[in-house]
Amino acid sequence: MIHYHGTPITPRERLQQMRGRHFCVSHESPRDLETALAIGASVMGDNGAFVRWTRNKPTDWPAYYHWCREWLQHPHWCVVPDVIEGSEEENDALLGECPLPRELTAPVWHLNESLDRLRRLADNYPRICFGSCAEYDDPRSSAWVDRITTAWEVLSRGRTLPWVHMLRAMQQAAEGPWPFASADSTNVARNAVRLKPRHGVMCGEVMADRLDGVNPRKGRVDAR
Predict the structure, then answer these.
(1) How many Cα atoms within 13 Å fall on the side-chain side of residue 25?
(2) Where do the structural domains in the chain lie, given as residue ranges?
(3) What predicted TM-score, i.e. pTM, was given to this entire model?
(4) Overall fold of domain 2-212
(5) Strand ranges across the sheet with 77-79
(6) Band of the pLDDT at 160, cuts 50, 70, 90?
């Protein structure tokens, strides 16, 4: 599983020492983008919808599209705009409005949305994201685990199995029995700055090594 480490990561020295890893850069806080593109194995562009929703700020999707066009190419990709706690119709409308290449984008299936929408996204996009929300907001809950398991069962019965990315639940995606292709987390960005180096090694590196070293177990889901 590819582990995308959320930015911004401070101080800049800490970010530079994570050279060669994969990074998630949000449109809401994009100042590490140039460095992440220069030193990272790949960059995932996040649309910032969740952060803006938590701060009660409006979205600006034309600005997001313009930002993505400046750097979006393989092996990098970005998340299609979505409406947090919005209806399926609202989120489908954003899919139709997105001008970015489909092969470089990933729509979000929110866990409280229908399984029919999940199947439809999987049939039409090479990569999709799972997003926790509503009654499935807590990755530690049995409801979240059951919903993720059901979603993977639906995907395994389809004619195509897309690349599936778990938004903001890296630990659960990596430790669970589901074959996630990637996940993101701001664990290093939020916590490493408070820790002191150990034996000359920055704690951001230590944390990233630990996170990157945990991957989903194989053979637990019949993914055809």
Answers:
(1) 25
(2) 2-212
(3) 0.90
(4) TIM Barrel (3.20.20)
(5) 105-106, 77-79, 42-46, 22-26, 2-6, 182-185, 163-166, 127-131, 108-110
(6) confident
